[in-house]
Amino acid sequence: MYVERLSQTASVAALAGDWHKLAAGVPFRSLPWLETWWKHYGAESSPPTTWRELCLLAVRGGDRELTAVAPWYLEYTLARGRVLRFLGSGEVFSDYLSVLTMPGRERDVAAALAAWLCGPGRDAWDAIELCGVAADDVAVGELVAACARSGLGVHVQNDLNCWRIELPGTWGEYVDRLSRSHRKHLRRSERRYVDSGRAVLRQATDAHEAGQALELLIELHQRNWRARGRPGAYASPRFMAFHREVVPRMFAGGMMQFNWTELDGKPIAAEYQLVGQGVLYAYQGGFDPNHHDAEPGRLSLSAVLRQAIKNGLSAYDLLRGDEPYKAHWRAAPRKMRRVRVVPRHSIARVRNVVWLAEQSARRWVKRGMQITASLAPTRQD
Asked: What is the pLDDT of residue 238?
């Protein structure tokens, strides 16, 4: 195997057919998602103090067959130096990112990548920082092991869990899994809003409707967060521009869907989901704070789950974040990891010592906040 570095978007676009196979149905790994991300967060969109360059590594066999892709970019800042990261990182919050590899070739690919990282270009990077990685990801696990064998410094940390609901064959089976109080609450809500016809789930049927649904979601999302005194995700111009461009691309590829819930004919909730290999990924939601009494989040999620089961999907993934409501809906945690790899040259090692000190300080601060919270008096209602 040999590794080829691609730094031009035209070279990446030429991989589209093979890339689709290697992504294995995970929408966050798809070329439309990552290519659009690079357009809005890449070199031309970097902050003034940050320099970014595409650094995608294509691994090929002796017959030039594309065996794997490491979808990385190189980011330089004065404080961190030159750091390799996944495309799709940062505020877009992509999950299940990986080195895209043909099944069964993970160890060979990892060895080839580790050799490249330790080769003539080894002084061109100061760290690799990978987030959004599943703990059981074989390709990244093999890469970590290969880097360690090559003498590179490796640090693996727990990240926030992803949460996934494994869907049964019928809605009744799913409801039976819920706690008694949750079942009672859900059935009362269904009788009041769904069975009466007051609440209706709508779904975008074409790219134009999906674009309109995105604008609805943006409005509801921002309204909800402003009501809490927070700016909301779409206060970021790049975040908004990214989604306005990626939504029609993902919809055209069958990798996304938009739902919205109407109450008495008025939209009160919108859901943005990605789709792949029988799994529905709950990327983002927007809810009208003026209809809090109707619990738009509960209404929307129950309607989407019912539809997903009806359509024969195998799972509904609530993605990263340990919010209590996820376990309440009988989602199970899926361990996620952050990986950091450091080369042997001295400047990188010095920067790594600083990074380790920062990590230790954060742990102490977090622990102190937890102790303070545990000692604080609680209000009794």
From this structure: 93
